[in-house]
Amino acid sequence: MSFLEITNIHHTYFTKTSANTALSDVSIQIEEGEFISFLGPSGCGKTTLLSIIAGLIAPTSGTIFLEKKPVKQSSHKIGYMLQQDYLFPWKTIEENIFLGLKLSNRLNDDTRKYTLELLQKMGLGPVEKLSPKQLSGGMRQRVALVRTLATEPKILMLDEPFSALDYQTKLKLEDLVSTTLKAFGKTAILVTHDIGEAIAMSDKIYLFAANPGRVHKTFIIPEELRNLTPFQARGHEQYTKVFQSIWKELESLEFRE
């Protein structure tokens, strides 16, 4: 069994007057340490699947296994990083990064030290006593990453975490997140609309079709790109070839719909 097993996931949202099938028969296997991207048009169920994997919502049918155990509810084994940093403005940076540990009753001298060291590694040591409003958007996202990693999750969910940033900051954070997760041997799933971001950061890309959401095609990123930082990967000749092949598949999906 793989590190993360997603088997025959089907999900329908029901209202009093309608039923909308967001996902249909989605099965994916993810190995420990892999960086995976879910790519596809709006409405293809990417974020719904992320929420199901995280245990935030239960699927209509199908199963999720993490380390051979069923995921039935939200767990500290799963970390979430979103487009918004969701730092509490009335708390200091130090208080914000300890929040997950406090909620899981795991804040002690050792975890406190580990988290502050993470902050230093992210180049944010001098800001621990500041408030979030005193930081730039990119710095706030780095704080959010520290808060997520502090609980030592087995797998990280990244739901378009760079989309609200300017392009230069976005590229810098892609490199920082990628190298950090590789250094910690973390498994990660990125939801994105950005083909280039998915190629530059991933080992494998699952392209989703919509109506209902389903896996249309899987792209394995060439090893030459996987061995580079995201910024370096964008300048490699293989990057353009992979981009064009994914673009053609996306266009074919649009034509069919």
From TrEMBL:
- Cite the GO molecular-function annotations of the record: ATP binding; ATP hydrolysis activity
EC category name: hydrolase
Pfam families (UniProt xref):
ABC_tran
**CDD domains noted in UniProt:** ABC_NrtD_SsuB_transporters (cd03293)
Q: InterPro entries, per this entry?
A: AAA+_ATPase, ABC_transporter-like_ATP-bd, ABC_transporter-like_CS, ABC_transporter_ATP-bind, P-loop_NTPase
Could you tell me which residue ranges the ABC transporter domain spans? Answer: 4-235
UniProt entry keywords in alphabetical sequence:
ATP-binding, Hydrolase, Nucleotide-binding, Transport
According to the UniProt entry, what is the EC number of this protein?
3.6.3.-
The UniProt entry, under PANTHER family, shows: ABC TRANSPORTER ATP-BINDING PROTEIN (PTHR42788:SF21), TAURINE IMPORT ATP-BINDING PROTEIN-RELATED (PTHR42788)
Specify the protein name: Aliphatic sulfonates import ATP-binding protein SsuB
Q: Which organism is it from?
A: Pseudoneobacillus rhizosphaerae
